[in-house]
């Protein structure tokens, strides 16, 4: 009797479990964002901003090099207090450049803050599109394949919803054939 109840329960579970199965999918956000024209614009803007700041820092390094060369050429003629004053000036300028470099490009520096600020609208738009695709395709969860904290060892191409998200954003997934970072093929087989 117990074994027949067990087999009856097992048969019930095996028939019902597909209905209870949760649906998952994944996207490649790097691929999606690389196809967004807004991202290309932001990237160009950030490149120009970086070039200006890098030149500013390089100019300050050149100024320090000039001061060091001048000091070395005049060193035999300088008194000890004058030498000390010049070395302190060079050291002060070196510290200023280090501080500027850290302020601009360091952790939580201007570069990272600015990039975060200009990417926020793009990431918000991506998030809304992902949410809409998840609802349309009745997915319980969408993972991001390009996330650093998530290791996806194997992914079935049928579960890649990147192209659906691109379509939701109004972007042709087949555009920009020169892109090197493309999602897996056969993504349109899902219903």
UniProtKB/TrEMBL annotation:
Keywords: Coiled coil, Signal
Similarity-based family: Belongs to the Skp family.
Chain segments annotated as coiled-coil in the UniProt record: 83-110
PANTHER family attached to this UniProt entry: CHAPERONE PROTEIN SKP (PTHR35089:SF1)
UniProt keyword Signal, yes or no: yes
A GO CC term assigned to this protein in UniProt: cytosol
Chain residue ranges for the region called Disordered: 168-191
Protein name, entry field: Outer membrane chaperone Skp
Signal peptide range: 1-21
Compositional bias per record (Low complexity), positions renumbered to this chain: 173-191
One Gene Ontology MF term: unfolded protein binding
GO biological process: protein stabilization
